[in-house]
Design brief:
The protein is an alpha+beta fold and 710 residues long. It is built from 27 helices and 22 strands. 37% of the residues lie in helices and 18% in strands. Bound molecules: 2-(butylsulfanyl)adenosine (IVH). 2-(butylsulfanyl)adenosine (IVH) binds next to strand 3, strand 8 and strand 11.
Length: 710
């Protein structure tokens, strides 16, 4: 096959795949089996391997994502992305409709009504039928270029069929369907990762990922609801726009009502309120739009929203139910959280049985008592909450609830004492090795950003503690495959074994974790206030745990008062400690180090012959920077104190180059700012280059980097 034939074949395969994609996602009428689809896909992949220069960025093979990027470039919207004015009652909707009538000078006005999707707004621009770029709403006039991430969403066509307008900007919402959201949270929990609060946050979080291959794994979806720029075609109404979407295989927001009176609008809004709970995704309102574009133009805009649209916001659905009991849960940090156990009640699409009551203050404020009839709603339509009690339905004997008395002043899990720190609302278990803490502690310890030990989800963590196999996190390193394999995850009556495969995975990844860098180990301990970046900064200042736990630097730092600056402290100034490590973090580490648990941890670490080492130890920044400047000091960290941004195509993978810069003491940032010292630019630097030039940041190539290293 010559190049021309290959090009033709590739474009034929791409068009074919895109057609099947549309049939599958948008029309839900697939014509080929998964197997046949995969075959076409592999044929195209093969040709692209042989002719990478002919591969299109909009090839269906690109849906799996590509190389991670450093940060999102900003892009301006040709037409600003505005907001919609909200109304909260039928009366206010009446005011809106009356304004339309007055401004258009007639009684009958064609409008459409459609769901307001609770997602993330996006603008997708097609040029000559090809997806050119996709941008978030941002501040309305410019947003993040998220093209690579949007390409991974199956329902977003990469090419439009024959007859597409030469420029077609489609606006809509990217969202995560409820089911996909629940499934993803279950998986995250199994992997010990933090669950997302609601589908909207999960969708927004996914779109912020810099690695589109990760985005491709998230269950994102898209629906179109508006137009931006359009050329080469005249549209007269919202209805015609929807017809064009259909023709182009773009998923249009549904259902849509057409009405011409206030009564009609109110009917549609009420119908949608019933229907929306059976939609696969979250909705929080009804959007009413004037149908004719001519009318829209006449009505115009305010600075923040069009005058031809209005969003009716549904109040969250509230239901009455009886609070039967209050149970108390113990979290990773030992916090005792009261939880309402409710008579099951169906709210906003799911059955609710429990709701957190947060803490004693919240219970007092709402005067919640066992036996009360309470009003339940879902905050953000997802997380159940007790809104208030109905005092008229209170049983005569209901007493105020006092958490401390209910648990007899003891942790319900380990029977140790509980205490409430001054100024805090939460009661906490004082036992550093409380099993409830232990299970949750283990989940953090094994999580990906911590020590990345596979196969330990919630159930495994709980059972390990419950069955006495693991008391503290370090026991994970003493596990043996054979006995672990027969760990019972079920009950005595119906046992369910962990199995040899899972056991082997846990043991082997735990072995690997022994040599993980100090920064991850510090983070993995879940010491209050000590997050990932604090872990890294602490590891820069210390060689190992011993040094960290008895650190003179931290002892100095802890005595700092608010407002005092680290830079003014003679001893500390030279360390140039980052803001992630302040007096609170220092105090938290030293408290842990001095505690029984901290001491036991060090001792056990020694017994297990594990000694995590810093991989970024570089405490004395000032001296290093001097050495770097005058070329003395053996040049171990010649890039110390310098911040780099890397862009364009280089002779090695970007991550390798970044690692090299970091090994030599430099910092690597994602975007160019006035704090950047050097932009290392390869082939095709793009907007970072322009920015660096405008800020006067030094631009170097790879040879320039070698010169700096010396
Ligand atoms: S039309 C000029 N229709 O809600 C704005 N917006 O609060 C016209 N939204 O940023 C927007 N569902 O991202 C429209 N069916 C729908 C919508 C919708 C959700 C979002 C949209 C907008 C925000 C405004």
């Amino acid at each position: 096959m010559n190049a021309e034939e290959a090009r033709l074949e590739m474009s034929r395969l791409a068009a074919e795949l895109e057609k099947h994609n549309r049939l599958y996602y948008t029309d839900a009428t697939p014509e080929v089996s998964d197997k046949d689809y995969d075959q076409l896909f592999r044929d195209l992949e093969l040709l692209e391997d042989v002719h990478p220069d002919l591969a299109s960025p909009n090839s269906p093979t690109k849906r799996v994502g590509g190389e991670p990027i450093d940060g999102f470039e900003q892009r301006a919207h040709v037409i600003p992305m505005l907001s919609i004015d909200d109304v909260f009652s039928e009366e206010e909707m009446g005011d809106f409709f009356a304004r339309l009538q007055k401004n258009l000078g007639r009684d009958t006005i064609d409008v459409t009504i459609e769901p307001k999707i609770d997602g993330v707004a996006v603008s997708i621009v097609y040029r000559n039928g090809e997806l050119e770029y996709a941008v978030t709403r941002g501040d309305g006039s410019r947003g993040d270029d998220i093209t690579e991430n949007v390409r991974t969403i199956g329902r977003v066509p990469l090419r439009l069929p024959e007859g597409a307008p030469p420029v077609f900007e489609v606006r809509g919402e990217i969202f995560m369907p409820n089911e996909g959201f629940a499934e993803m949270n279950r998986e995250r929990d199994e992997q010990g990762l933090q669950a997302f609060v609601n589908p909207r946050n999960a969708a927004a979080g996914a779109l912020k990922l810099l690695d589109s291959r990760e985005v491709a794994k998230r269950p994102l979806d898209f629906l179109a609801h508006g137009i931006g720029q359009i050329e080469g075609i005249e549209l007269a109404s919202v209805k015609e726009f929807h017809a064009l979407l259909k023709e182009m295989g773009l998923p249009a927001n549904e259902p849509i009502w057409e009405k011409d009176s206030l009564e009609g609008v109110v009917d549609a809004v009420r119908e949608l309120d019933v229907l929306r709970h059976s939609l696969a995704y979250g909705t929080d309102g009804a959007v009413v739009k004037v149908n004719l574009f001519e009318d829209q133009q006449q009505l115009g805009f305010t600075s923040r929203a069009p005058k031809w649209a209005s969003a009716f916001k549904y109040p969250p659905e509230q239901k009455e139910t009886v609070l039967r009991e209050i149970t108390v849960q113990v979290g990773r940090t030992g916090t005792l959280t009261p939880v309402a156990e409710l008579d099951p009640v169906f709210v906003s699409g799911t059955t609710v049985r429990r709701a957190t009551l947060h803490n004693q203050d919240e219970i007092d404020r709402k005067d919640i008592r066992i036996g009360d009839t309470v009003l339940i709603e879902k905050a953000g339509e997802i997380i159940p909450a007790v809104v208030r009690v109905l005092p008229e339905k209170r049983p005569l004997n209901a007493e105020p609830y006092k958490l401390y008395d209910e648990v007899g002043g003891k942790c319900p899990v380990c029977d140790s004492g509980i205490e409430r720190a001054e100024g805090f609302v939460a009661w906490k278990c004082v036992n550093f090795v409380c099993p409830a803490k232990a299970a949750n502690q283990i989940k953090l310890f094994v999580s990906r950003k911590a020590l990345d030990i596979d196969g330990v989800g919630t159930i495994v963590a709980e059972k390990l503690v419950e069955r006495g196999v693991v008391e503290t996190v370090l026991d994970l390193f003493a596990l043996e495959e054979e006995s672990l394999g027969i760990l019972n995850l079920g009950t005595i009556e119906s046992p369910r074994m962990l199995g040899p495969k899972n056991a082997a995975k846990i043991v082997s990844t735990a072995k690997r974790a022994e040599t993980a860098p100090l920064s991850r180990w510090i983070y993995a301990l879940g010491i209050p206030q000590v997050g990932e970046s604090a872990g890294r900064e602490l590891a820069r200042l210390h060689r190992d745990f011993k040094e960290t736990f008895s650190s003179p630097i931290l002892k100095d730092l802890r005595t700092f008062k608010t407002g005092q600056r680290k830079e003014d402290h003679e001893e500390l100034a030279k360390y140039q400690i980052a803001s992630e490590v302040g007096p609170t973090v220092a105090g938290s580490i030293l408290d842990y180090a001095a505690s029984e648990a901290g001491q036991a941890f060090l001792k056990r670490l020694e017994e297990l012959e594990i000694n995590p080492q810093s991989d970024n130890y570089m405490p004395d920044m000032a001296a290093l920077m001097e050495q770097a400047a005058d070329g003395s000091g053996g040049g171990e960290f010649p890039l110390a104190g310098k911040t780099f941004v890397v862009t364009g195509t280089l002779s090695q993978p970007r991550n390798d180059i970044k690692a090299r810069i970091q090994d030599l003491g430099g910092k690597v940032a994602g975007s160019v700012s006035k704090n950047t010292d050097y932009l290392l630019a390869g082939e095709g630097g793009g907007s970072k280059l322009t920015k660096a030039e405008s800020l006067g940041v030094a631009v170097i190539d790879e040879a320039g980097l070698e010169d700096l290293i010396g």
